[in-house]
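Deviation from plan, reported transparently: nicotinamide-adenine-dinucleotide complex.
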Amino acid sequence: MAKDENLIVGRMLIGGEFVESEGGGWIDTINPANERLIGRVPDGNAADVARAVEAASRAQKDWAALDMAGRADLLNRLGDAIMERAGEIAELEAIDTGNTIGKMQADVEKSVERIRLAAGLGLELKGETIPSTSSGLHFTLRTPYGIVGRIIPFNHPFGFAASRLASAIIPGNAIIIKPCETSPLSACVLGEIVNEILPPGVVNIVTGGAATGEAIVRHPKIKRIAFIGHSGTGMKIQRTAAEVAVKHVTLELGGKNPMIICPDADLEAASAAAVRGMNFAWQGQSCGSTSRLLLHESVYDTVLPKVLDRIGRMKAGDPLDPASSMGPMNSKMQYDKTMEYIEIAKQDGATLAAGGKRPEGAGFENGFWVEPTVFTDVTMDMRIAQEEVFGPVLSVLKWKEIDEAIEMANAVDYGLTASLWTKDLGLALRLVREIEAGYIWVNGCGTHYRNVPHGGFKNSGTGREEGIDELLSYTEVKAVNILAG
Ligand code: NAD
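Because the crystal trials were delayed, the predicted structure below was used instead.
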C-alpha cells in the first residue's frame, strides 16, 4: 500500500490491477485508540462493482477449469505468503480496528489455517450416484455458482476476508469481497498478497460502505451472496436481493448468547470462562460473546465475585501493547451505541457492578474507550437482556429451576452460541437439545474448532460457515440422468 505523508492509502483490487473508484470518492479511516487519521481507501460505487464483476467473469472459467489440486496448491501458497507478512498485517489490524495485537496475530494465523483447511477439503465437493433405475446412471455434480459476493463486518476484517475467500474459490468460483468501511486497510494488504499468487480477477476487493455492499447485492450476475454483520442489515440484504433475482444468500449475524452455570459446575473454570467468553480482547465486539451470564442462585455469590475480580484486573490500553487486555471500540458509532445501552440498562433498573464509563487517566482522553462493564439484577424484560450491544457489557441474571434457565436462554430473537457448565451428562444433553443456538459448548466457550460448522438459529442467521458446509454452500447441485440409448 502506498504511504502518502504517513497516511496509508489503500487501493481496490479489480482484475489484477490496483485501482481507485471511478466515482473518485475516498473513505477516511482513523485509529480508534486516539481518533487520528491513519489512512483512506476508495469509496467504491456501482460502476466499480460492475468492473469487478466483469473481471471475475473473465477469470472464473479458467479458474474452474484448473484441477482441484491446482487450485488447492495456489491456496496453500497464498497461506504461505500471508504468513510472511503476518506481523505487518496484525499491526495494521490493531491500529485500524482497536483490537489487541496478540488476538490480531492469532486471527491471521487462524485465517491461514482455514485457507489450508479449505484447500484440503476441496476433494470432498463430491456428488452422489443414485440407484434410481437399473438401466440408467443417475448422479449429481457440484458446480460453482460463478461469482460470489462476500460482505464482511469490522470486527475481524482480515480473518473474515482471507479465510472466507478460500471456501468460496476452491469450488471454482471467483469472488468480490467488500470489507467494512471502518476498518478496511488490511483487506488492501490482502489484495497485494492475492495479486502475487492468484490469477487476476479470481479475487477482487472493492472497498466502500453500505452503498457499495448494496451494489454487490443488486448486481444480477452475483447469484451467491455471503454476509457477516448485523441482523438488521442481513434482513435488508435478503429484501434487496429478492428485488433483483432469486439469489442464494447466507447470513452470519448477531447474538445475545447465554452462558448457563449450573450448581455442580467447576466454578473456578466457569468463572474464568464467563470473562473469556466476553472476548474483551476485542471489546466484546464478537457475535459469539456470551453476554448473558445465567447463574444458579446457589452459586451466584461464589461466581460473581470471581468474575468481578478478573474483570477488575483487566488493563485497557494501547492495542499495540501486548500487555493490554482490551483496546477501544472500533468506531464512534460503536462507542455511542455501547454508552447508550449502559444508560438504558441503568434506567431499566439493572445494577452497575463494574465499569460503565470511559477509563480515566493518560491515554484515554481521545478514542472510543469503554471500561469492561457488568450489570447485575438483570431480568429478561430489560433491553440489556434482549438486544445485542456488541460491546464490553456483560449482563448477569439469576435462576432457580433449570426450566427457568432454559426459558431465559431461549427468550431472545437470537440463537447463535451458548455455553453450558455442568458435570451432569444427562443435564448437559437435555440443555443441548433444548437450547436454541447454532453453536454450543459444554464446559467450554469462545473457541471455534476446525471443520465444525458455525452459524445461527433464529435472527442469528442462515447457513453454516467454517467447514465443509461452507464449501458446499458455494456449489449448485446438477443432477444428471444417463439413459441407455
Ligand atoms: P453491519 O451490518 O453494520 O455491516 C457489515 C457490512 O455490511 C459492512 O461491510 C457494511 O458496509 C455492509 N453493509 C451495511 N449496510 C449494507 C446494505 N444495506 N447492503 C449491503 N451491505 C451493507 O455490521 P458491523 O457493525 O460491521 O458488524 C457487527 C455485526 O456483525 C454484529 O451484529 C455481529 O454480531 C455480527 N457478526 C456476526 C458474526 C457471525 O459469525 N455470526 C461474526 C462477526 C460479526
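The pocket of nicotinamide-adenine-dinucleotide is lined by residues 151-155, 178, 180-181, 209-210, 213-214, 217, 228-230, 233, 236-237, 252-255, 287, 388, 390, 416, 456, 461 (CB under 6 Å). We consider this an acceptable substitute for the interim report.
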